[in-house]
Write a structure and sequence with these properties.
It contains 4 helices and 8 strands, in the order αβαβββαβαβββ. By secondary structure, the chain is of the alpha/beta class. The protein has one domain: 2,3-Dihydroxybiphenyl 1,2-Dioxygenase, domain 1 (Roll), CATH 3.10.180.10. Strands 1-4-3-2 form a 4-stranded mixed β-sheet, with helices on one face. Strands 5-8-7-6 form a 4-stranded mixed β-sheet, with helices on one face. Strand 2 and strand 3 form a beta hairpin. The radius of gyration is 16 Å and the shape is globular. The chain starts with 12 loop residues before the first helix and ends with a strand.
């Protein structure tokens, strides 16, 4: 794995991996800093750790990782995503209890693509569909008050 990180990470990969539980989401991204900025400014995520190769983000009880393309050079997905314009086609990455109106406003202010603005849906949620810099579709949602 190629790295651009100066120094050592906040914890070893072995230590971090041993503590993971449940569903894990790893997103391959072309630019860690741009994707981390989107997650913080649009989604309101907390940055747990960020370097040029890798980031850990958290919102509510959800945690996900960003991996820079160069860090996956020996990974089977590397050739699959190389040259892809929109990654994660067909996948929705939902953040429950993340205000879609606030996220939409932040996305528009930041120049991100809003596929569908915040709207009340018949399945009991208010949600918006927003693309991050790599084309992943994030869906912040809140329950409708009944």
């Amino acid at each position: 794995m190629a790295t651009k990180r100066p120094g050592t990470p906040w914890m070893s990969a072995d230590e971090y991996g041993a503590g993971l539980e449940g569903l894990g989401i790893n997103l391959l991204v072309s630019d860690i800093a741009a994707s981390e900025e989107f997650a913080r400014s649009v989604l309101g995520a907390e940055s747990v750790y960020v370097d040029a190769d890798f980031a850990v983000l958290r919102y509510g009880g959800a945690e996900w990782m960003l991996h820079a393309d160069h860090s996956y050079e020996d990974h089977p997905l590397h050739g699959f995503v190389a040259g892809q314009e929109g990654r994660g086609a067909g996948a929705e990455l939902r953040l429950h209890h993340c205000d879609p109106d606030r996220a939409e406003a932040a996305a528009l202010a930041g120049g991100y693509t809003v596929l569908a603005g915040a709207a009340d849906k018949p399945h009991g949620l208010r949600e918006a569909f927003i693309l991050d810099p790599d084309g992943y579709c994030w869906v912040p949602d809140i329950p409708l008050k009944g």
